[in-house]
Amino acid sequence: MATGKTFYLKTFGCQMNAHDSEKVIGTLEQQGYRQVESEEEAGLILYNTCSVRDKAEQKVFNRLNDAKKLFKTGARFGVLGCVAQQQGEKIFERAPFVSLVSGSASYRNLPKMLARLEAGERRITGLDGCQSGETFETGFTARQNPYRGYITIIEGCDNFCSYCVVPYARGRERSRGSASVLAEARRIADLGYTEIQLLGQNVNSYRDPEGKRSFAELLAAVGEVAGIRRVRFMTSHPRDFTREIVQAIDAVPTLCDHVHLPVQSGSSRILQLMNRGYTREDYLERVSWIKAARRPIALSTDIIVGFPGETPSDFNATMELLAQVEYDSLFGYKYSSRPDTPASTMADSVSESEKAARLQVLLDRQRESQRISYSKQLGQILEVMVEGVNPAREQIIGRSSQNKPVNFTCAQPITPAPGSYLQVKITATHPNSLAGEAV
Ligand code: SAH
Ligand code: SF4
Ligand code: F3S
Question: What is the CATH number of domain 6-126?
Answer without folding.
Answer: 3.40.50.12160
